[in-house]
Q: What sequence folds into this?
């Protein structure tokens, strides 16, 4: 997950249009969430190799050329796992950002997890 976030962050800093990331089911779901929330333009899953590749078309503002994703922050990490109950989710940038949560019902945003009344591991914050 840290590699997924770092590849997107580095591609945006270098003003790349497309970034390729090795695929996994968790990364695929995170990509779908980024697309649903409007942080990326398009994505494509390619299963030509053993592991597969996720190709993500990054989104930039037309006038200012600023990336749509201002901040990608890993919350739960191998050395310090971070879990939250449904009522304990912290708001990201006063509700403007999202947190991606791994729950027993799948990977979803913090708002969806709160609506379904499930807690889980807080993977990352995106603003």
A:
């Amino acid at each position: 997950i840290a590699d997924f976030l770092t590849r997107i962050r580095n591609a945006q800093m270098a003003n790349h249009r497309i970034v390729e990331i090795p695929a996994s089911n968790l990364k695929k779901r995170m990509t779908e969430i980024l697309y649903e929330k409007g942080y990326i333009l398009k994505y494509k899953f390619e299963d030509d190799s053993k592991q597969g590749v996720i190709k993500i078309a990054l989104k930039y503002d037309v006038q200012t050329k600023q990336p749509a994703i201002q901040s990608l922050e890993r919350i739960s990490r191998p050395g310090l796992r971070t879990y939250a109950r449904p009522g304990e989710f912290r708001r990201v940038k006063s509700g403007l950002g999202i947190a991606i949560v791994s729950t027993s019902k799948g990977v979803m945003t913090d708002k969806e997890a709160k609506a379904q009344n499930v807690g889980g591991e807080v993977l990352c914050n995106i603003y």
